[in-house]
Specification:
With about 325 residues, the protein is of the alpha+beta class. Helices cover about 30% and strands about 25% of the residues.
Length: about 325
């Protein structure tokens, strides 16, 4: 379960995946709020023929119908599976009983945290004959976490195999966000088929097989990054430098950020911790490279860069 809600990640709705799921989403939007996972799987099987459409339908229904359980998040229950078994197969079967019970309760109550979203997606895929996995790992959303190496996992998400290729998706992140103690439902398409080159900017899998499938990164490198927000992730722009999430402010008190493909139409601003109003950086451009210069940088603070008034990057300063 997440240590902190992905509030920073949930703020933008973005919909530019390579495949158009408009018809799938429109049909699933009119589905009833099924109380049994088997009934949802039967409806999806009836309405769709391709594996891609079925996976999308399952994901979209969960994100639109399951509300994040803030009470469970703030007062987590201790979950443990205690049982005896005499073989690996028996262990697998008994563990599945617990998972099925979790999914059944999720569909009945229409609430859950990341474990419920991920196990529910996996169960739907099992019923539809789709190969999928539940992935445990780490996510970050707070500058305090930059540079702090954690061994524990704090989040769960999924991968599904379509056309012999694994795609990564996170129904929890797609479902909405917290605002002043309330859960706001707002579907975020970015977290369906997260771009391969951006997965490790937000998610770090515990199992190394998922790191090998999508790139190369160490856990220390993951935690040393800045905090990425959707206004940057869902754009064509990419951060060139600095790659480290901790910026040393020198005697000139200037911070320089460089980007590739930063749209000239973007409204760019920044704040340091405690600032009431955002400021505009000095921006120079040469071909596809944009350089942002921030004057009078504050030490021992937090720097937030905004794109179109939405948080795009967070750094710590020293």
């Amino acid at each position: 379960m997440m240590k902190q809600l992905l509030f920073f990640l949930f703020l933008i709705h973005f919909s530019t995946q390579s495949q158009d799921f408009t018809k799938v989403d429109a049909l699933v939007k009119n589905y009833p709020r099924f109380s049994k996972v088997e009934n949802l799987a039967l409806q999806i099987e009836k309405d769709f023929t391709s594996d891609k459409e079925k996976a999308r339908a399952a994901f979209f229904w969960l994100a639109k119908n399951i509300r994040y359980n803030l009470r469970e998040y703030y007062n987590p229950k201790q979950r443990s599976y205690n049982f005896r078994y005499s073989s690996k197969e028996e262990r697998k079967q008994k563990l599945q009983v617990f998972k099925d019970k979790l999914v059944a309760e999720t569909f009945l109550n229409k609430t859950g945290v990341c474990e419920e979203y991920a196990q529910s997606f996996k169960k739907i895929c099992d019923l539809l004959g789709l190969e999928s996995e539940v992935i445990k790992g780490a996510v970050r959303n707070n500058p305090d976490e930059i540079g702090k190496y954690e061994n524990d996992t704090n989040h769960v998400w999924n991968a599904v195999k379509l056309d012999n290729k694994w795609i990564v998706l996170d129904a929890t992140c797609a479902a909405g966000y917290e605002n002043n103690g309330r859960w706001i439902r707002k579907f975020n398409n970015y977290f369906y088929n997260i771009p391969k080159e951006k997965i490790f900017k937000t998610h770090f899998p515990e199992d190394s097989i998922w790191i090998l499938r999508f790139g190369r990164i160490t856990k220390r490198e993951f935690y040393n990054q800045p905090i990425y927000g959707n206004s940057l992730l869902s754009s064509n722009a990419s951060l060139i430098s600095p790659k480290d999430g901790i910026i040393n402010v020198n005697s000139s008190k200037e911070i320089t950020l460089k980007f590739k493909n930063l749209d000239i139409k973007y409204i760019i601003s920044y704040t340091f911790k405690g600032m009431r109003y955002s400021q505009k950086p000095i921006i120079t451009r040469e071909n596809t490279i944009s350089t942002l210069t921030i004057k009078n940088a504050q030490k021992n603070s937090e720097l937030i860069l905004y794109i179109n008034r939405k948080a795009a990057l967070q750094f710590k300063t020293e």
